[in-house]
Amino acid sequence: MKQTNPKNTAFLILILFISMFIQNESFAQKSNEGIKISGSVVDQNGKIVKGAAILIKGTTSGTATDLEGNFNLTVPSESSVLVVSFVDMKSEEVPVGKKKNFQITLETEAKTREPQYQVSEDGYMVHNQIDQFPIPTNGVDEWKKYMAKNLTYPKSARNAKTQGTVIVGFKVLEDGSVANIEVIRGIGGECDQEAVRIIAEGPKWNPGKKDEQAVVTQISLPIRFVIAKDSGIATLNQREEKAIADRFGKHVVVVGYQAD
């Protein structure tokens, strides 16, 4: 029987370890990059749902469907779960698994069920049934002036041409203080941070009331970051982002020019 050269054996083992290392590195890189998925959201009649929220369960990361009812999203792993929701529709939890494309159907809530949100006359969305809406202590006009004066378009975002709609969620407690500020729908980077900052540093509110008692209320506020175009014509992306913002009531718009 022909004997194997020890040097050849050692060389083969070395090659095997290198191959395994490369495969493991490749897998680790793929895991770190996440998994890109896409899909669409429709109602029980097959009609597209524009502006539906798609969140990664347990996080505030996610996206929303565009004017065609489609979405693209990067999830951390196959074990991720999507939470898909839209006003007056039943939310759905969808495991990602090995699928890369999804068609998700949301059913309309029964008419006998109490609506899950109200939009105030001033345009922000309140996710509670109440008799009296919460309002900023200095009044809505002063609140708008505060937003206009203090909300900025981060230079890094303008350089990167980052624009879109950030949906900020927060609670107004019984004493009027603001708590639990989070990005429900973000566009990344410093725009998300700026949207959170403007709420956190803002004035207190007069709390919402039900049966003449102060109650905790959950508010959603859309803030659009728009890079101005010389032509004055909105791009397709800007129109889609406006449609998403419109679903949450009147929205705040921050217009900026691309930084030098």
Tally of individual domains: 2
Total number of beta strands:
17
How does the overall form come out from the CA principal axes? Answer: globular
- Helix count, per DSSP? 5
Percentage of residues in helical conformation? 25-40%
What about the largest sheet?
6 strands, mixed
Write the layout of secondary structure elements.
Layout: H1 6-33, E1 35-43, E2 53-56, E3 62-64, E4 70-75, E5 81-85, E6 92-95, E7 101-106, E8 118-119, E9 125-126, E10 135-136, H2 140-150, H3 155-159, E11 164-172, E12 178-185, H4 189-200, E13 205-206, E14 208-210, E15 213-215, E16 217-227, H5 236-246, E17 252-256
Offer a concise description of the structure:
The protein is α+β, with helices and mostly antiparallel strands and 260 residues long. Helices cover 26% and strands 32% of the residues.
Tell me about this structure.
- The protein is an alpha+beta fold and 260 residues long.
- It has two domains: 34-106, Immunoglobulin-like, CATH 2.60.40.1120; 118-256, no CATH class.
- 26% of the residues lie in helices and 32% in strands.
- It contains five helices and 17 strands.
- It has helices at residues 6-33, 140-150, 155-159, 189-200, 236-246, and strands at residues 35-43, 53-56, 62-64, 70-75, 81-85, 92-95, 101-106, 118-119, 125-126, 135-136, 164-172, 178-185, 205-206, 208-210, 213-215, 217-227, 252-256.
- Strands 8, 9, 11, 12, 16 and 17 form a six-stranded mixed sheet that branches.
- The model is unreliable at 6-31, 111-115 and 230-234 (pLDDT under 50).
